[in-house]
Amino acid sequence: MALVTLADILKDARKRNYAVGGFNVFNFETLGAVVEVAEELKTPLVLGIAERLFKFVDVDTLAAAMLKAAQKSSVPIALHLDHGHTYEGLMKAIRWGFTSVMYDGSALPLEENIKRTKDITRIAHSLGLSVEGELGYIGCLEGIEASASAVSQPEMAAEFVQRTRIDALAVGIGHNHGNVREMPTLNYSKLGELYNAVHVPLVMHGGSRMHKDEYRLVINSGIAKINIATDMSMVATETLKSELAKNPASNYISLMAVVKKGVKDSVRKYMLSFDCISKAI
Predict the structure, then answer these.
(1) Window from 121-125, 203-207, 255-259 with minimum mean pLDDT
(2) At the topology level of CATH, where does 6-232+263-273 sit?
(3) Is 119 annotated as a binding residue?
(4) Tell me, what DSSP letter sits at residue 57?
């Protein structure tokens, strides 16, 4: 199956009313886990890495492996830079052969966010790549939650999409990135208003550990991609701790296999909840 753009994948997701998982990987074990489950379940996939991880991993090597895995895969895969904040990071992803980039200017004043996102979109579109933008602050890592005032507004979203010409929009509806203290209360009515106001697929960041019925509600309200990132890291950590408690003398090679299986089990549950199974057929 061909390496595809984010726009291609999300167009089908909206047409057939399902969500694609946007899974961020951070090493070879998580890369293999995500791609193998996608192939097993025959689901389209957005395979990503966040710019903030560049300082922790050998991104040039990992990006090359991601590209190879996507090219060999039996399912459609978009390679995606998640939460790109710098021109340098975005250009790296383009040089690696990624088919999609996200520019996250959500912390900037609106006009500056529009200007920078528009510039990135112009470059990406000239190369046949897709762009995701973000509007409305989404709570960040380390338990700092979004406030009610951070919810994206429909009129502003419509202007943002029209002026930037992005292919997908990440919106804030009261949810959070990362490992938060408690599950947020989502503003479903506002999400429906946002979907009616714009003409591009919507993206939900911080989509971990929701109930299957909640995923169906956000999909019905226009969400076409649900990002899973921090939870994969948490699952890997929890699996590692559990295995070491049972088998303290485990060697590293066996631990890698156990962690990969734990991540695969988690990814499988998410994909089943997103109703994207067999959509790659």
Answers:
(1) 203-207
(2) TIM Barrel (3.20.20)
(3) no
(4) S
Q: Does 199 belong to an annotated binding site?
A: no
CA distances from 6 to 147, 244, 252 (A): 29, 39, 36
The DSSP 8-state label assigned to residue 148 in this structure reads G
pLDDT value at position 281? 80
Residue 163 tokens read as 């002026």
The span from the CA of 281 to the CA of 276, in Å, is 11
Is 9 part of any known ligand binding site? Answer: no
> Both ends of the chain: CA-CA distance in Å?
10
* Angle 224-225-230 from CA coordinates, rounded to 5°: 155
The tens digit of pLDDT for each residue in 46-88 reads 999 999 999 999 999 999 999 999 999 999 999 999 999 999 9
- The count of other CB atoms within 10 Å of the CB of residue 13 is 23
Q: Return the structure tokens found at 29.
A: 């074990």
Cα dihedral 270, 276, 277, 281, rounded to 10, equals -150
Active site residues: 82
Give the predicted TM-score (pTM) of the model. Answer: 0.91
100 is in an annotated binding site: no
Ligand-binding annotation for 175, yes or no, is: no
Rounded CA Rg of the chain:
18
